[in-house]
Every structure is written in C-alpha cells, then in structure tokens.
Amino acid sequence: MSSEGKVPFIHVGAFLVSELDPIIAFVNAKGFALTSHLSDIERSEMRAYMAMIDNILVNAELYLAWLDETVSSEVTRPRYGCPYPWPLNWILPLRKQSEVRARLSSNGWKDKNMKQVCEEVRICCQALSERLDQQQYFFGDKPTELDALVFGHLYTLITTELPVGQFADIIQQFSNLTNFCKHIEEEYFKD
C-alpha cells in the first residue's frame, strides 16, 4: 500500500505512484503505452469499460466489504483496524465505514440490497464477458490497462476467502472471465 493508503501502486527508483490513472500517466511518460495499438474508437471504448468497472465493481466491492454485516464484522473492520493500537483499531474502521456509507449513499448504492448488488455485478460481468469473447485480451492479442484493471478486480473477488461468496459465484458463471484470470496469473505472476 502506498504512503497515502492507496492501491494499486508502483515504486520505481525515487518515485512512488499510486492509483491506476496516475500510474498509467507515469508509465506513458516513460515511453511505455499499452494502448498504442488501439484506434481512437477502441481507446474510447476501453475507457468506457473502465468507467463501468469503477461505477459497478468498485461500488459492489465497497458494499460487500463495509455494508454486508457479516463481511464487515468478520473481515473488513478487523483487517482495517489491525495495524492500530486500541482504541484506534475500533475507531478508525468505524470512521472508514461511515465514509463508505456516505459515498454509497451519494451514488445510490447504500439503499440497494445484496440481491440488487449481485445483479449489478452479473450485468457487469456479462458485458465484460461479451467484450472479451474468446480473445486472449479485451482488445486482441496485447494487454491494455483494461486487462490489468479487470484482472485486479475479478482475481481478488475469485480468490479472497470471505464468509459470503456471491460475487465469486457470479464471476465463475463466465468461463471466459475465469480463464482470462488464470491466463494473466500464469503469464505474469508465476515464477
């Protein structure tokens, strides 16, 4: 985690860059562009899919982590508070939960129930599955920022053990998405 508490992050020499868009800008400034093979229309389409992930998967993950009482009490609050001494280990998770509730309230997610949230996740996965189809990556044979973003979210949801597993169950209904995650893991993260 970065010094600001943000993920993802990269540490390159004297530089510590956190969050996806600043990382992309940093890497592009160094002469590496994952989207150079895309047309302007494809880049716009990629950004639309990234916005969908931010609007659906990120909110769904926040809902699950902080508003689902079982996950919040058994996993999220203890993990969030564990680096801090008492009473901060109780106060800071409650403050964070309040911040997340406010964010989800402002964008209409706080009043959803788990069934509605799961349906949003299913719709998002359906759109991603249709875009990926049988390709190796979302835009052909080369990875883009979208591939990194999708992998980060889906792989985490599939592999993190939680007391409830609805999101993982939904993702696993889309075999091309689970195969995509396996491919990325084997290609880039295996020794």
From TrEMBL:
GO CC annotation, single: SAM complex
Keywords of the record: Membrane, Mitochondrion, Mitochondrion outer membrane, Protein transport, Transport
Coiled-coil zones: none
First-listed, main subcellular location of the protein, grouped into a coarse class: mitochondrion
Metaxin glutathione S-transferase domain span: 123-184
Source taxon at top rank: Eukaryota
Pfam families assigned to the protein according to its UniProt record, in alphabetical order: GST_C_6, Tom37
Subcellular location as annotated: Mitochondrion outer membrane
InterPro entries, alphabetized: Glutathione-S-Trfase_C_sf, Metaxin_GST, Mito_Protein_Transport_Metaxin, Sam37/metaxin_N
Transmembrane region(s): none
Span of domain Mitochondrial outer membrane transport complex Sam37/metaxin N-terminal: 1-97
GO biological process, one term: protein transport
Family label: Belongs to the metaxin family.
Protein name from the UniProt record: Metaxin glutathione S-transferase domain-containing protein
Organism from which the protein derives: Pomacea canaliculata
Organism ancestry: Eukaryota, Metazoa, Spiralia, Lophotrochozoa, Mollusca
